[in-house]
Amino acid sequence: MAVIDAPHVFLIFGNGWIATQIKELLLAKKVTVITSQVRTEDREQVLSELSYHKPTRVINCAGVRGLPNADWCEDHKVETVRSNILGVLNLVDCCFELGIHITHVGSACIYDNDPVHCPDGKAFTEDDEPFYAGSWYSRSRLISEKTIRHYPNLLLLRIRAPIAADLNPNNLITKLLNYKKLVNLPASGSVLPNLLPGAILLAENGVTGIYNLISPQPFTNNEIMELIKKYIRPSQSWENFELDDMHKVLKAPRCHPVFDTTKLVSKLKELGYEVKDTHEALEDLFIDMKAEGY
C-alpha cells in the first residue's frame, strides 16, 4: 500500500448514498472529512467553502440520477442540467483555480453496445470517445464529461449500475426487486464495497485522468436475481422481457455497455490494492447482506 506523506483533509460535495459510503470509509481511515452543504452551481459559495476548509482533496458525488429511476430526469431537464453539467463544471473549475485535486464520481452510461460503436462486442476503454445520449440523464453526463475531462487536477471515475450491501433506492438490487419484468442482457456494473476503497486510494495518491470504476466482468440481471434468491429472498421470482418491450414502458431508453477495466485494475495493483473478480465481489456482498438480516 502506498504511503501518504501527510494526512489529507477531504471535502465531499453531495450527501447521498455513494457520498455516505465514501465518507464512512474515510472516517474509518481516521482522516479529516467534511461534507459541504452548498450548491455546486453557486460559484461564490463553492469558492468560499474551498477557501474556508482548505481541503487537500475534494470528492464530488453531487448530481441527480433520478428516483425511482433515470426517467425522472426527462421531466426535470433544468434541474438535471444545473446539477450534472453546470454544478460539475463549476466545482472542477473552482478546484483548478485554487490548485486542489478533485475526484468526480461520474457516470459510465455514456456508451452503449451497438454494431456501429461496438463492433464485435468490444469492451469500451477510457480512450474510446463517449457518445450515448439516449436519455436526458445520459445526455447530461455526456456533456459534463466532455466539458471537464481536460482539467489537469481531475480524477474522473465512471460508475454504472452501482451495487452495495443494502436496500437503498439507488441500489441496483432494490431497483430489480421493484420491477415486475427484467431484461437479461450482459452489461457492466460497479460493485461498490470492493471498488470504493480503491477510488479513495486513487484520490489520496493524486491520480488524475479518467478511469472506469467498474467491476471487471459484466453480469446480467438474472444473475443478480439468482443471488438475491440464494441469499436474501428464497421465494423471489421474476419474468424476463425483450429490450424493445422495456422501452415501451419507459420514458427514455437505457444503455447496456460493457467496459474494459484493465487501466483501473493495473493502477490499483501498482498501489497495492486488488480489484476482485466481479462474481466473487457479488458473492461476498450478498453473504454480508444475509449476515445483516436483509
TrEMBL record:
Annotated GO molecular function terms are: methionine adenosyltransferase regulator activity
Question: Gene Ontology terms, cellular component aspect?
Answer: methionine adenosyltransferase complex
One GO process term, biological-process aspect: S-adenosylmethionine biosynthetic process
Q: Which InterPro entries match?
A: dTDP_dehydrorham_reduct, Epimerase_deHydtase, NAD(P)-bd_dom_sf
* Pfam families the record matches: Epimerase (PF01370)
Domain named NAD-dependent epimerase/dehydratase is located at: 18-151
Question: What PANTHER family does this protein map onto?
Answer: DTDP-4-DEHYDRORHAMNOSE REDUCTASE, METHIONINE ADENOSYLTRANSFERASE 2 SUBUNIT BETA
- Supply the name of the protein: NAD-dependent epimerase/dehydratase domain-containing protein
Per the UniProt entry, what species is this protein from, by scientific name? Polytolypa hystricis (strain UAMH7299)
